[in-house]
Each structure stands twice: as structure tokens, then as C-alpha cells.
Amino acid sequence: MKITKISLWSVDLTSHETYYMADGKTCDTVESHVICFETDTGLRGWGEVCPIPHYLPAFAKGIPSAVTEMAPRILGRDPMGVDALMRDLDAFLIGHEAAKSIVDIALWDLFGKAVDQPLYLLLGGRMQRDMPLYHSITCIAPDEMARIAREAYDTGIRQFQVKLGADANWEADAERLIKVREAVGSGPLVYGDWNCGGTKLHTTRTGRAVAHLDIMLEQPCKTLEDCAAVRQATGLPMKIDEGAYDMATLLRARELGCLDAVALKLSKFGGLSAMKRARDLTVHLGAEICAECTWGSDIVTAASLHFAASTPPDFLLNTCDLSSYVGPRVAPDGPVRKDGRIAPPEGAGLGVTPDMDMLGAPILEIS
């Protein structure tokens, strides 16, 4: 089996509500890319990546250029050798993990279809039927955030990510965490996320104000060293997100004592191949994993769910149904949440089928 054609689409995804985050970051309508690898056997493999603004060292308009650069190294290759092909691409194009992620996901989809197996089996075996979801709450007025939390709780959600720092007011951030905790009661996981947009002083003051509650903090500052300082000053557990993107950063976070949990995201690490290696190290280090990606719709959600389902349950904190936060949906047969949990798609490969009418005409075709 050989890859004979590469097609790429651009899809605008609009959040059901604007996401306000620290340091002036917002997420409303963003550009996602969908890729298809066609083979001489008729099989197709699909991938997706959506590098939202101000998050990754990558931008949406750079994806087509990076794919064009990698195309000569992909066409004519056997997708069954995913690791070998990705090692070749790593040597050929340094960095550009987001663009490699879309390629890697499509290769795994082809691999699964070629052997007629769902990806969770190929990624280590299915370790749980379905996985817990968290619900992300945009940083707005505290009472409104509490209302969103209550509504999500009523659907079965028991983990809540509270966006903080949009107004650079540490007391308002403390109120947000207090009111969300009151809204969902004791027991559910509540954590405040600054998306690395806070200062040590601001985030420490917020953390100390809620230290009497059962709260976790997520990536308050840009550097791992500052995150570790906040953890030490507040005594609250810490989830690392933006600061963890390869093996070295995982080891550094553990060394600093701030790796209680970590977001492993496909676009940060470069796809499922690299995520598998990161997962093995994270489990060895004893941290819990949020299995997801930066943003996107059904294809990247499916990839995240297969990865989550093959992760040891004791080390899986949660996962995310990104496609539920945006429209339009890329694949009508994509999975949906039920009672606060979600299961990976069934069927070979990713198990989702993109809507070709919705995708429209590709922006790039190389054969």
C-alpha cells in the first residue's frame, strides 16, 4: 500500500460561546485544517489540527506550507510504517509539531483501516469502556460561570476547568473559583486555568484565597519554574499544560515538583506517535493525564478519545469532546457525551467519516 494523494481543507470552527482567557487571549472563530491521504488500495486516512491563536508556536496559515514541504517525503510511502515515516519527517523538518500532528493522525487512521482495527487497540489496547470529561468554563462574571457549572453538572459532568485572568483581577478570580465550587458542591474536580497568562504574585494571591477549598491550579505562569513557585506558595496541586510539550519538559516539571497532572495534547507533541511515548513517561513519573488536543472538531476528538481509552485508568484524569464546543461538526458520526462521559468511536481506524459536502473544495491537492 502506498500513499498516492494528499488533500487539505480549511474549515472555520465557531465556538458556541466566546472563550475569554488570561493575557487578552480569546477563542471564537478559528481555522482548523483537515487532511486526507489516499492510497493505491482505495483506503483514505484522515487527520485534523487546529492551532488556536496565542497558544502554540504555530499558526493555522502555516499548516498548508508545512504539509507542502513534507509531501515529497510522504507520497509513495507505506503508511503501515508510521514510526519510520514520522522519524524521517522529524529529521527532514525540525519542529512544526502541529503540522506533523495532522500527518501522524492520518497515518494512524490508515494503519487502523488497513488492519481493520480501531485505533485504541493499536495504541495499547482498550483499558476502559468510556472516559470522564471535563467542562471548560469561559472567564466571565463569577455568577455566570457558576450557572454554566451547574448546567454542566446536571448533564453528568464532574470535572470543571475554570478559566481565569481575563480581567487581571486576582480577587475576581478567587470569587470565580469559590462560586463554581459552591455550585457543584464537594467532590467534583475544580481547577483554575490561567493558560500561562498570570504572574506569580497574582496567581499566588488567588491560590491562597482558595487554599481552604479543594482546588487545583493549571499552568498559572509561562515558565515551569514560576508554576512550581506558585505551587509551593499555595500548597495546591498543579496541572501543567502549555509548559509540557516533549520528554524534557515533562522531566523538568517533575524535577520542580509541579507535575501532579498534565495535558498531553496532540498538536503540542506532534501526533499520536509522540503522545504514546509521552504517556509512557508520564505514567512512569506518576502524574495524571488529560488526553486531548488544542482545539478542533470530530477528527481530532476521535484521535484523542482512542488515546484516552488506551491509557491506564488510574492515570487518566479526563479527556475532552472538543467537537461539542464548536460548529459545524466535521463528521456527523462523531461521538457525543453521555452522562458526563464519552466513548471512542467504533470501527476501523479513527472510526469517523467526514462530511465531504461540508468540507467543500480542498485548498491543496498534491499527488
UniProtKB/TrEMBL annotation:
It comes from the Bacteria. The keyword Cell membrane does not apply. Residues 142-237 form the Mandelate racemase/muconate lactonizing enzyme C-terminal domain. Its cofactor is Mg(2+). Pfam families: MR_MLE_C, MR_MLE_N. The keyword Secreted does not apply. GO terms for molecular function: isomerase activity; metal ion binding. InterPro entries: DgoD-like (IPR034593), Enolase-like_C_sf (IPR036849), Enolase-like_N (IPR029017), Enolase_C-like (IPR029065), Mandelate_racemase_C (IPR013342), Mandelate_racemase_N_dom (IPR013341). Keywords: Isomerase, Magnesium, Metal-binding. Its EC number is 5.1.1.-. PANTHER family: D-GALACTONATE DEHYDRATASE-RELATED, ENOLASE SUPERFAMILY MEMBER DDB_G0284701. Belongs to the mandelate racemase/muconate lactonizing enzyme family. This is L-Ala-D/L-Glu epimerase. It comes from Cognatishimia activa.
